[in-house]
Design goal:
The chain contains ten helices and 13 strands. It has helices at about 15-25, 45-55, 105-115, 135-140, 160-165, 175-185, 200-210, 215-220, 255-295, 300-325, and strands at about 5-10, 35-40, 60, 75, 80-85, 90-95, 120-125, 145-150, 170-175, 220-225, 235-240, 245-250, 255. Helix 5 links the parallel strand 8 and strand 9.
Length: about 350
């Protein structure tokens, strides 16, 4: 009987320290291969050295297309490519970004789930928003084991908390114990294979760079009245699984949380642009009203004066909206302009 010999790990902000602790706790005779995706800039340097120093007794290498998978080795995702596990080898996918990132955590987790099912252990570490949550759910749907860093100790607790909400997580573990827990889990027999949902395989193909169009997208999603924050294309809601997710016709994937975060910035910018335009308009008609008064054109002056007052009222409304958008969640401004409870 096979054992759990595939470990996939994802993290973002605040994940470096728990990752070092985790790797340092793994044994030299680890009977499993480890795959890591961190959200890293396209020209990031030094990540491989940092991970290699932490692993110490385990060989660490950057993922390369076509590499065979070997137990006891640690493979690190490289910038601008999705790290995928397909047909017993590493594949580097140039498919669309997911959750505004490439590499993203979800594609690695899905590909491992589709290829290895119950032999997979997924781990979500510290990070903002919720990349990794859908992937961890895919691992569970394919019979694997799901772990998260204890969110109470994570520098950025959003990713582990989102994973806890989206998937039936087996354990939430402090980073100091993750290495020991994984060392025990990889020596346990894996469960029986379960059928892989076709939509999981389809999303692995998309991450690998397979063609995406409306016909392909209809196989896993339904169009909605939203636009992609990456390319402004039409979004479709992905059916089934958690968390709530969308894909566009180009293939970009975003969770609802990430789409909302991107929209928040766009709304703020739109409000500021509108405020500038209306204030300029108020200034212009004020000067036109003044010119009318100086020329003795009373009717024109009164018309432009009224418009100036109207535009300044619009500007005040937008300014209040901008200020409200800057307040922390849950706070409000009462009619007197003071913070309410």
């Amino acid at each position: 009987m096979s054992h759990r010999d595939i470990i996939v790990i994802g993290g973002s902000s605040g994940a470096t320290a728990p990752l070092r602790t985790l790797l340092g706790g793994l044994p030299t005779d680890l009977p499993a291969a480890v795959f890591i995706v961190l959200h890293i800039p396209a020209r990031s340097i030094g990540v491989l050295a940092s991970v290699a120093a932490a692993a110490g007794h385990l060989p660490v290498e950057s993922a390369a297309d076509g590499l065979p998978i070997r137990p006891g080795h640690v493979y690190l995702g490289v910038p601008d490519h999705h790290l995928l596990l397909i047909d017993g080898r590493i594949r580097l996918g140039r498919g669309p970004r997911e959750n505004m990132a490439r590499p993203a955590i979800d594609p690695l987790f899905r590909s491992a789930a589709a290829a290895y099912g119950p032999r997979v252990i997924g781990v979500v570490l510290s990070g903002f928003l919720n990349d990794g949550a859908a992937g961890l759910d895919a691992i569970k749907r394919c019979g694997g084991v799901a772990l998260v860093q204890d969110p109470t100790e994570a520098i950025a607790d959003e990713m582990p908390r989102s994973a806890l909400s989206a998937a039936t997580v087996d354990l939430a573990v402090p980073s100091a114990r993750l290495g020991d827990v994984l060392s025990d889990l990889v020596r346990e027999p894996a469960g029986a294979r379960v059928p892989v949902p076709p939509e999981i395989r389809l999303e692995v193909d998309i991450a690998a760079g397979e063609r995406v169009d409306s016909e392909v997208l209809r196989r896993l999603a339904e169009p909605v009245a939203l636009t992609c924050p990456h390319c402004q294309g039409v979004l479709s809601r992905v059916r089934g699984g958690k968390p709530l997710r969308f894909r566009c016709q180009v293939g970009h994937a975003v969770t609802a949380d990430i789409a909302a975060k991107e929209q928040e910035g766009a709304v703020d910018e739109a409000l500021r642009v509108a405020l500038r335009i209306i204030e300029e308009r108020a200034e212009l008609v004020s000067r036109m009203a003044e010119e009318g008064r100086e020329a003795g054109r009373t009717g024109v002056a009164e018309l432009y004066g009224a418009r100036a007052i109207e535009y300044r009222q619009y500007a005040d409304t937008i300014r209040r909206a901008v200020l409200l958008s800057m307040n922390p969640a849950g706070s409000r401004v009462d009619e007197g302009g003071q913070d309410g409870p």
